Amino acid sequence: MKFAIATDNTITAWDAAEQIPEGQETQQFASEKQLASLAAGWPNARLVEIWNSFAGVAGIGSDLKPVKKFTDRKSAVARIWRAIQALKPPVAPTAADVAPKSRKPRKAATSDAGTPTPRDDSKKAIVIAMLKRPEGATLPEIMTKMAWQAHTVRGFMAGTLKKAGLIVESSKPEGGDRTYRLAS
77 and 142 in one domain? Predict the structure, then answer.
């Protein structure tokens, strides 16, 4: 196992085979001797800060007590080294053992012309039936039959029916209501 200590004194454990990711500035060590050589350049206060960050941390040992100072650098390094032996490397996400079930592709019902056909009892089917009449259907008729507001009818004509590949003709005679019908 190897370790990396960041400038904020956070120590992370890594499997020996893993590459420690680049990112914030870290110093790496894999033995107590390497830790001691790194710590030789640190102030005693940093060793105290590192030790106190372990105190009470689950997994490292809740029996560790905070300190105000160490008697010497060697004992500080030894105590820190023993404490970090309990650290576990971060678990890398693994692939699932079994591939997720693939969804069956949805097939739209199609007529002979290749355009999707709606279910017989759907709102889409009802409106299309109204629009197939020779006179078509007026905006108020569709609003009443479907219990829709005018903007819903217009959106349905411009969106849903257009996406279905249907061509809707719209006309508004002088003094009359807007009428929609399917183009022949």
Answer: no
Phi, psi angle pair for 31, to nearest 5°: -145, 165
The type of residue at 152 is T
Segment (H or E) for 155 = helix 150-155
Q: Convert the pLDDT of each residue in 129-140 to its tens digit.
A: 999 999 999 999
**Global pTM value:** 0.45
Domain carrying residue 42: 2-84
Residues in a beta bridge with 182: 168
- In total, how many domains does the chain have? 2
The amino acid present at 62, given as its one-letter code, is S
From residue 105, give the alpha-carbon distance in Å to each of 102, 108, 109. 9, 10, 13
| pLDDT tens digit sequence for 112-132 | 555 567 787 888 889 989 999
The runs of H, that is alpha helices, within 9-122 are: 32-39, 44-54, 73-84
Query: Is the CB of residue 41 less than 8 Å from the CB of residue 8?
Result: no
Residue 1: name the closest of 34, 22, 31 by CA: 31
Strand partners, 13: 3
Does residue 108 fall inside a structural domain?
no
Task: Cite the DSSP H helix spans in the chain.
Answer: 32-39, 44-54, 73-84, 123-132, 139-146, 150-155, 161-163
- Number of other residues whose CB lies within 10 A of the CB of residue 18: 13
Please report where in the chains the tokens 């971060």 appear, as a residue.
Answer: 90
Tokens read off for 100: 């997720």
